[in-house]
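Let's do one together. I've listed all components of the complex below, 568 residues spread over two lines.
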Amino acid sequence: MAKTRRPPRIGDAPIFRNTMIAIVLVLVALIIIAPLAVIGYEALSKGIAYFGKTIANSDTRHAILMTAMTALIAVPINTAFGVATAWAITKFDFPGRRLLLIVIEIPFSVSPIVAGVAYLFVYGLQGLFGEALQSADVKILFALPGIVLASMFVTAPFVARELIPLMQAQGRDLEEAATSLGASGWRTFFFVTLPNIKWALLYGVILCNSRVMGEFGAVSVVSGNIRGQTNTLPLHIELLYHDYNAVGAFAAASILAVLAVVTLIAKVALERRGAGRVRRPSLAGTAPDISETTP
Amino acid sequence: MARRILPGLPLTLGITLVYVAIIVVLPLGALIFKAASLGPEDYWRIVSSERAMASYRVTILCALAATLFNLVFGLALAWVIVRYRFPGRRFVDALVDLPFALPTAVAGIALTTLFASNGWFGAPLAAIGIKVAYTPLGIIIAMAFTSLPFIVRTVQPVLEELDPALEEAAQTLGASDMEIFLRVILPQLAPALLAGLSLSFARSLGEFGAIIFIAGNQPFETEITALLAFIRLEEYDYPASAAIASVMLFAAFTMLAVTNLLQARALRYTVKG
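Okay, and this is what the predicted structure of the assembly comes out as:
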């Protein structure tokens, strides 16, 4: 918001202002930038050639592939779920709407370790479906399906929470006009709703993807940590680190750090297009709120 | 008004309910079922064992310390971003979200390397006798790092919307800057601050990835509850793992309720101005 008139406000005295800025900048450098810098420094500490060799290691390549496959399955499914949920919650009134909103938010408040342990008691041998799955010879835990399921749990609310406040604020008039003029539901969604929510949708998808690719705790419980088989990139980093292969661990970590920086840049770019505006913070950063935006 | 002009309710609500049931409700239900099947005596014995109690103490105390640090630093960060214009302000604003974007395992090894006794920060700190890595201090730093954005992002919008007229009125009436901050600005920020605090605390209670690398993981000293649940699992002691995980789940639900309550309050204040 541009201010046309700026009277001197408290804390505007130059000494105080400059001291505050200096302290905060130093702390940001120490707390936020230094961890990022140390990743790059350690990854390249034995030279760029060694870095390349580490990344090309077959176990690391396999971990990258696992992470990419997990994201390729989990993110589209979560996106479809998020869009469907946002449509149901914002375009209709039905009993239990608020309860549904709270249930969708649960994965953000649950520790990833608890999520992983919970999945074990569904699909593990000692779990609800364990024996049935074993006799049917279906492998979910310690394999890709388990990793995908756990990733979907931790990221379940990401897309929905970006769309719900926005679609709530936009109301139902446009869609109602389109359908009353004879457009089908799908046509209404693709030609009326989607153009209005595309940036927020992309924003949610990018945050969801970033979390799926970086998830550690939940995946670490359900994957079984089998080197070269069920290790995703974050798990592979842990393994290399505990093998005293610091350069390898930081080389693998640098891939995820670059992803994090790219995510931040995309986030800022999308925020300039208005995504992420209608929001309030929650355990994952932002959350839908329907109480303040009655149309 | 229940005007059902728009199509798609059965399809979208159906997808939502099936997804929520399979992905969220079923596993959490299975966990509670497993923990409940222990029986009250066994359950109590496990969750109140000395090692479990020690892990709660470590987790809660470290989370409190991390949250307090973030209260001060987060408020200062939000203040500087909102109130001042300086080169690099937008860059700092964007960087605030880095702890959310950086995978926790990556943050974990980076912080451990920085604070190890031969690290960039660890070496000078060791020289003056402060050990960070493999001590509770390391846990606090990992928790503070991963939950930093919460307080900034809850306080920032409220700080932006503060009405300058209130400060001006206080100034005209002769209040000092300190008095204005404590008695005019802080009360307006309080609901948002509280909401941010509870989010930050809840996240710290459940954090795992960033902590296990730096913590040292000594039982009774630097073992967090999430790790204990994980260790019991690796020892194939599934009932104990279920019981400890259920304690964390109840703590999470409690924090979720508290946070929702505080946020509803914070929102009311914002809307009323």
